[in-house]
User: Fold these one by one.
Assistant:
Number 1:
Amino acid sequence: MTARRLVTLRLLAAMLPLVMGAPALPVYAAETGAASQPQPAPPPEAVAGALNGGPGVAALTAYFESWSAPQDVVARAAMMIEAIKARSRTESPEKLLAALDRINGAATNALDISRVLRLSVEPDFVPQRAVTALDFGFREMPVAPGFESVVQGDPRLQGSLASLRQPGEQGLLADGIAGIRRIAIPVSGPGPYRIVLMSRDMGNAELTRAAFGGMVRVNGAPYFVRGADPSQWLNMATLSNRGPALVGASFDGRSSLVMGRPDANQLAQGAGQQGAALIINGVPVEGQLLIELIGQGNTFLTALLIEIADQPSNFVLSPEALAQLVPFDLRQALEAELQAFLAAALEQFNPAAGGPQPPGPPVRLNELNTPVFPSDTSASPG
C-alpha cells in the first residue's frame, strides 16, 4: 500500500465523524486504511481480459465485483496494475494503456454496484425522516401512513405503466406500478440524498428479476444492480420507527443507517410485510433528482423513499447489508485513490517519463467506463 493511499483514507476516517456526527466503525477498516482482508491475486483470465478485452472482460469484472469491503476494489486495482506492469517489456504501449482503461472501467463500476436487499416493513411504520415518501399503486387502494399516493398518469413518472397488486393484501408493498423508466423528484436542498427504491416478489420471476432494471442512473450517475433474483437478495433491511430500541443497535454515523444485530433482523424478517429494497445515493441537478431505470424487461416499484444522506435513516440494516453500502464521501475518496494509481501507472508507461517502451500514440483514459446496455425503447412516456 502506498503512503499516499494510507494518508487519504486516514484523513477520510478523521473527517467523516465531523460530517456525519458519530465515530466511524471498523467495517470499512478506516483505522488502518487497509482492505478488509488479504486480497486474492488477479486470476490469469482477468489479466488476459484487461490486456485483450473480449470474453476475458467478464473475468476482470467478476474479480472487482466480488469485494467484501469497498477498499478491496482499490487494493485489487493496485494488484492488477502490478500484473500489467510485469508485461511492460513484452506488450506494446497501446496494449498496456488499453489495459489500464479496462481496469479503470471495471474498478470504477465495481464501486457503483448496488445489491438488492431483502426488506421487511413493520406494520406501524411511518416515514418520519424522509423528505419524499411515495406509495405507488392503485388509486382505490389505501395509502400507507405518511406516504403520498402516486398512480398512473402522475407527471413525475414516465414509462409504459401498469398497476399491479397482490390480492387480499394491504400495506406499503401490497401494490405498485410496473414499467416505470423515469422518476423526476424536485428537492430543495443540495444533497446528497439517500434514495430507496422498493419492490416485492409478485410471483412472476421475470418481473421480479427486472424490478429495478439492470442499472439505475441518478442524474446520469450509474448504479449497477446486482443480486436481483430473490434467491440472491441480501439479508436484511427493516423499515422501523423504533431503530436502536427495536434491535439494541448503535447508530452508525458513516452511512447514517442504524445497524442491527443479525439475530434481531432475522426476527424482524418474520414480523412485517416482505419485499426488496435498493439503496443508492444521488445529488440533485437544478433542484431535481432524475432517477432512470435501465435494462430489459418490465420494472416494478411499490414505493420510493428519499432521505438526506448525512442524516439518520429509518432503515435498520444487518451488518452484512451495511457492509455492502458505500457512503457517498467514501465512494468519492476511493475513486480518487483509484485515479491516483492509474495516473502513476500512466506516467510509468510513458517513455518521456522514463518508461520502458518506445513512444506510441497518446491514449486518454475514459473518465468513466460503463457497460453498454441494449437500447431501451420503453423509456418514453406510456
Number 2:
Amino acid sequence: MSAKMRVFGLLVMVLILFAQVPVIGEEDKPEEDHDAKAQKFIDEMNEAECAIDISRAFAKGRTAAPKSVELYKTAVECQLKMGHPTRATAAASALTRLDPDNGMAWGVLAYGYAKRNRFSEAFAMAIMAASKVDDDSGTMNNIGQLLAWYDHQDPKRKLKKDVQKALDENRALWEGDADFDSGFASIEGLFLEHTTEKEETEAEFEEAKDAFELIDEEIRELNEKYRRYDDEFRDLESRNRSERAAFDRLLRSRNPDRSKISRQERDIRSNEDKLKQLERDIEKVRTEFKKIEKDYKPKREAYEKAEKKKETFDKKSKMFRPKFAWLPPAVDGEVVEEPQDKGVKANTPGSGDDDPATEDPGDEDKGENEIKAEKRLKFARLFVANNKTEKAIEICEEIVRLYPKTPSASEAKILLESLQKK
C-alpha cells in the first residue's frame, strides 16, 4: 500500500470517529448557562417602565436562552406587576413545561383562558395552580369561581385524569379559605339568583295560565249552556206551536173530545212554563257571561305576556353565563388588576351591589329590602296556590333569614307556621 493510500485511510478513520461523537450545542448546554446568558435581559425586564419594553426584552432573551427558567419567571412577574397578566401567557406557558411546580404560571394560564371564556381549560389550569400554591389570593378566588361554575354544569365537563385527581384531593382543603369561599360564593350567588328568577318566571307563567284557563273554561261552559238552552227553547217553541195549532183545530171540530182538550191544554201550559224557565236560564247565562267577560281579555293578555316573558327567559337561560371577576396571581403578596375599560366599574367579589352573596339585608336601605321581601312573599303565595308547598316553605325561610326586619318577614313567619302544620 502506498504512503498516499495510508494517509487517506487514516483521514477516513478520524472522520468516522469524530462523526460518532455528539457535538455540544445550545440545546444541550446546562440550564445554568441559559440563566447566565439571560441575565442581561432579566435585568432589562426588571428595569423596564412599561409592558411593551418587558415584552421586547423577553423576546430577545428567549432567543438567546430558550431554557432559562429565571427568564420566563421574571417575564411573568414583571407583566403581573405592570397589571398586564394577559401579556404574560406566552412566558407562563413555557414556564409550566420547564418548571411544572410553578403555581404562578398555571395561575396566569387559568386567568388567560378564563378571560377568553374558555372555562374548561381555565378550570383545569386553575386546579393545577391551586394545587401548587394555595396561598395566592387571586388564584384561590379564581378557582372558587370556576368550581362554582363547574358544579352547575349539566352534564359535567369531563376532566383529564391528573386534573380530576388534583380536584378530588384538594377541594376539601380549599373550602374554608377566605379567597376561595369569596369567589365561590359570588358565582354561586349568581346561579342562585338565576335559578330564583327562573322559578319566579315559571310560577308567574303558571299562575297566569291557570287564571286564563279557568276563565276560558268558564266561558266555554257558559257558551255550551247557552247553546243547549237555546236549542231546547227553539225545539220546545216549535213543538208548542204545533200542539197549539192542533188544539185550535180540535176546538173547531164538531164534537170535540173534552178529555183530549183538557189534556192538550195541560200540555200547552206545561210547555209554556218550560219555555219561561228556559228564558230565565238563558238570561241567567247572559248575566254570568257579562260578569266574567270583562275579566277575560285582561287575563288572556296577562297569560300571553307571561308566556312571551317565559319564552324570552328560556332562550336567554340557554346562554346564561354568570358575571365573573377574574383576578391575576399576586406578586410579592400584591394583586395588580388589569386596567378596566373607561367608565366600567370593576366587579370584584365582595365589592357590593354586584355580589348578592355578600349583601347585608336590613342594615341600610329598609325600603329596598321590603320591596325584595314583598316580591319573594308574593311568589311564595303563588307556589302555595299551585300546590308547591315545599318551595313555598323554602322561600318563606329565605325571607325570614335575609330580611328579618321587614314587615313581609312577619307575614312570611305566619305563612311558614301554617304551611308547616299541614
Number 3:
Amino acid sequence: MTAISLSLALVATVLSPSASPSRHAVAPAPALVAQAGYPPPPPPQAEVVPAPRSGWIWVPGFHEWRGRRYVWVPGRWEHERRGRMWRAPHWEMREGRQVWVQGEWVVAGPPPAPMPPPQPQYV
C-alpha cells in the first residue's frame, strides 16, 4: 500500500497545474494501462502555450482515464534532458487491445527516414 501512496504522491506533484517550472522536475515512471472497453478520449482542450524558456520544454496537456471518466491533465514545464526527447502519452494497439502509454523521456536518435512516394496503380 505504501508503494501506491508514494506513486500517487509523485504523480500529484508532477501534474501540478502550476505553469512555472520548479528547480527539480520529476517525471512519472512510464506505465501501461489497458483500456479495453472504454470510450475514446475527448479532443484535447485548448491550452495557452507559454513562451519558450531556455532549458525547459512545454509538455502539452492530455486526457487521462481515471476510474469512470476522463480527466484533463494540464500541460506543464519539464526540464530539458540532453540527448533525450519527450514522447507524449498516447494510445497503442498491442496484442489486439488498446493500451495507454504514459509520456516519457526517450533517447533521441536520428530522425526517421522519409516515407517513399506512393507507387502508381495501374488498372
